[in-house]
Amino acid sequence: MKHLWIALPLLLGALAALGFTPFALWPLTLVAAAALLWLIDAAPTGRRAFGLGWWFGLGHFVLGFNWIATAFTYQAAMPPALGWLAVVGVAALMALYPALSAWGAWRLGRGLASRSLWFAALWMLTEWLRGHLLSGFAWNPLGAVWLPLSPLAGAAAWVGAIGLSGLVWVVASALALLVRSDRLRQPATLVAPLLLIAAVAGWALRAPLPAPTSIRLALVQPNIGQGSRYADPNANLAQYAALTTQAFAAGAQVVIWPEGALQFTLEEDPAVRAYLAGMIPQSGLLLFGSDHIERDADGVAVGARNSLFALDERGTIHGRYDKAHLVPLGEYLPFRPLMTPLGLARLVPGELDFWEGPGPQTLHLPGLPPMGVQICYEIIFPARVIDGRDRPAWLLTISNDAWFGGDGPPQHFAQARLRAIEEGLPVVRVTPTGISGFIDARGGVSAKLPQLQVGVLHGVLPSPLPPTLFARFGHGTTLVFGLLLAGLALLAGRHGGQRKLDIQI
Predict the structure, then answer these.
(1) Both 9 and 31 in a single domain?
(2) pTM for this one?
(3) CATH code of the domain covering residue 444
(4) For the chain, what is the domain count?
(5) Tens of pLDDT along 89-104?
(6) Least confident of 329-338, 346-355, 427-436, 449-458
(7) Can you name the residues that pair with 362 across neighbouring β-strands?
(8) Domain presence at residue 500
(9) Is residue 371 classed as helix, strand or coil in its secondary structure?
(10) Annotated active-site positions, please?
């Protein structure tokens, strides 16, 4: 029993992660979260509360980030054991955020109700920090567990995904308090029902989705795995070409390939450029991911950009978007002169680092409404996906999820759905191995291709909604919600001083 205070929160954290897709066992998340709140309130010291939060975070993130083991295995040719070591290392660092939330709630709160609401507010703060500090890693916001419940997930249009995470803890706090029959009259017990009623009412009173556009898109998913991506670029290009020819023949106006689909340098290889143009019909457009090489005045390659290109039947490049939020140790090596002697250069493919693009921008392409672009994990960062000065009518996110294991792709897709809800914009997502699909402006999935399936997904481009509250004010609405919870926590603290739960750990 001596180490129960370690084992129990570790288990609860893992159970809470089962609320994420592909498991979607969100009731387990709520129960595990409520149990953690009991433990924090019962902690004899702030140090113990910090430890409870850290062990919870470790279990939560090891399961939620398990796909990183596969990613490191592909990226650096590591044995699987070292890939899992990387998972534990990342999870241990990320676990500091829930640890700080637990410590802060214990210190600021007075009683279960107050500490639970403080924890909800502080979790929102630390989840925001997790998405910003040290380049940021916003993967799997806890609020993503609400996606199976459309009325609750729809609240992201008001308070964003981080606000949804706060709602998880508010509901968990209500569950925690409900076991206290002597505390059912606590004002804090009314918070969760009122918020849930407001969310459902807002969902029920929402305006209908506008009719889709008439623009016919085709998403090409060739199921080329990470191990085959560089093996035979000519064969891969031939497969893309065959699927693209079929797509245009079936009436598509725009065909879209995923991130890094073209393994040739478009701007420096006229033959490849002519080959691609030859498969595009008049007034058609091909959008695809490829690298753009940066050269110095002497023509020496000094860097690369992870880009999306738009090409027409004449071989004209109508637009290019360069990825701005790069992956450390994936697309560039921080402090390369120091890291290379340590052998860490093997984590980054090639000798060139990728360079950052200018940030979110809107592309204006012939035959298409204004388009925002996100490449790979850029789509996981709320309030950082569009150019607010030139609002697009839809978002295109291309990615290579072939190295994300089994759980990574559905979680990545889920986070694209959250961006659609937050911004009120449809999202079109294309990957080589799945999941590719069409997402409407409320986060609903109208069509998708599952993982590891070859195919072309045809569909019409959905229409946008007017800017949501979150689209207009960004994390300002999240901040207001967090301050509301903090105020309620202070109010509950005035009614605090109630006996702690008698839990000995």
Answers:
(1) yes
(2) 0.93
(3) 3.60.110.10
(4) 2
(5) 999 999 999 999 999 9
(6) 329-338
(7) 372
(8) no
(9) strand
(10) 259, 323, 376
